[in-house]
């Protein structure tokens, strides 16, 4: 009997453990479990089965068409990319250079 593919992510810290179940296809089924000294908490959020791309596209369209949508600051974008760079380093790779660095 073959074992099912485990597409989960676990982070352990001093105050507990966070586990994201079904990282690859969260629109089909997912859960976020937080285990702490206070006990276990499970979070799940389901819409109509939209993919992450559909959510991103909807937010972009809302911002362009009606000025609505999520407002992110420049510093939030920079912080996000710094985090992505750290993930690359932790995985033993080099961060992807920016377009301006390649010019």
UniProtKB/TrEMBL annotation:
Protein source organism: Alexandrium monilatum
Protein's recorded name: Gfo/Idh/MocA-like oxidoreductase C-terminal domain-containing protein
Gene3D superfamilies: Dihydrodipicolinate Reductase, domain 2
Superkingdom of origin: Eukaryota
């Amino acid at each position: 009997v073959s074992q099912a593919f485990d597409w989960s992510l676990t982070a352990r810290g001093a105050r507990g453990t966070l586990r994201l179940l079904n990282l690859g296809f969260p629109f089909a089924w997912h859960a976020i479990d937080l285990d702490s000294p206070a006990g276990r908490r499970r979070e799940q959020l389901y819409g109509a089965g939209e993919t992450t791309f559909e959510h991103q596209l909807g937010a972009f369209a809302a911002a362009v068409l009606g000025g609505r949508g999520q407002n992110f600051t420049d510093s939030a974008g920079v912080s996000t990319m710094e985090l992505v760079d750290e993930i690359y380093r932790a995985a033993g790779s080099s961060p992807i250079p920016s377009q301006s660095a390649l010019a």
